[in-house]
Amino acid sequence: MPEKDLRVGVIGVGMMGADHAERVVNRVAGARLVAVSDPDTARAADLAAAFDGVRSVGDPLDLIADPEVDAVVVASPGFVHEEQVLACLEHGKYALCEKPLTMDSESSLRLVEAEAKGGRPLVQVGFMRRFDPEYAQMKSMLDSGQLGRTLLLHNTHRNKTVPDSFRSEMIVRDSLVHEVDVARFIFGEEITEITVLAGTPTGAAAEGVLDPQVSLFRMAGGGLVTSEVFVNCQVGYEVRCEAVAERGTVTAGRNSTGIYSTVSDENGGYWGGQVPPDFRVRFARAYDLEVQAWVDASRRGEVVGPTSWDGYAATAVCTAGMEALATGRPVRVDLADRAAVLGGVG
Q1: Measured distance CA(98)–CA(120) in Å, rounded
Q2: For 145, phi and psi rounded to 5 degrees?
């Protein structure tokens, strides 16, 4: 591996981007944060000032083109991802793009095609659950064959609360997208059909928001996946996955794997654990491993983890999922021919 550190720029310094910036500075080896960019220039300047040798760049495209930047973390809103990732491809910069890759399947496919045309992989998509030790162990155990074929997958995805601006379709596009990638990752195949159902909404949701939602995926090999997404559960961030195979089950994310405590009050004693307040706590280790893997691979001139095709496939499923939410009916997922699009790339 090259001795020179990977010089990293971060685009978008909201909650996720600021977290990644701090991660690159303090918890990742072989990388050096050199620049940040955000439409909120004051926030970007404040973040840059918190670390030695980091510049704030006004235009994110200028950051990407900067010869002093080797690789870019794209943590900006999804509607600008296409332009920014395309710029990374044009300048030959490795990119770690947070999900979703783009806002719809057509624009995601354009990125896959542009990367393939360039002749070498440059994009890793931020589906960090693949790097979570429990999810990775589940995948390894199921792939070993000791439990027989995987038949069913059950996902639970609960968030304490979201802003009123987080609408029903965003639950599919921005939250369920993780379960989409988990299903593809665990089964190792594509999703062919999606159904999204919404019952009585919680009183904690904004007016008109359908929360919680339950989705059903049909996999190419016949397996089924159920996913509950509840973004205003009021308790905390709770994510787990149970795989049901022919000779056993595997569960990742059980709360019992965390802290265990007892407490008493005038009504008696209670036992329990702690539900993390948000995703940064629950998946802190996964994010560390994800970014470290991206840095190491970029320094080697490679891409590991979820590819642009994985980002496109997930977006295509969620695009169909938004139609399924609106109609209440199953919707077929139509994907481009992978071999024809990628050729020998990806």
Answers
A1: 20
A2: 90, -5
Instruction: Find tokens 């024809």 and name the residue.
Output: 340
Cα–Cα distance, 55 to 203 (Å, whole number): 44
What does the pLDDT read at residue 264? 62
Average pLDDT, the chain: 94
Query: What burial letters (b/e) apply to 143-165, b meaning 16+ CB within 10 Å?
Result: eeeebeebbebbbbbbbbebeee
Distances (CA, A) of 216 to 3, 94, 230, 262: 47, 34, 15, 37
Distance, CA of 180 to CA of 222 (rounded, Å) = 15
CA pair distance 44, 61, nearest whole angstrom: 15
Q: Helix 15-26 vs helix 284-300: angle between axes, to the nearest 10 degrees?
A: 60
Between CA 98 and CA 228 the distance in angstroms is 22
What does pTM read for this prediction?
Answer: 0.92
Q: Which domains does the chain have, with CATH numbers?
A: 6-129+285-306 (3.40.50.720), 132-279+314-332 (3.30.360.10)
User: How big is the chain by its Cα radius of gyration, in Å?
Assistant: 20
- Joined together, the tokens standing for residue 89 give 């491809």
Q: Helix H segments across the chain? A: 15-26, 41-49, 60-65, 81-90, 105-118, 133-143, 168-170, 177-187, 279-282, 284-300, 308-327, 338-342
Band (37; pLDDT cuts 50, 70, 90): very high
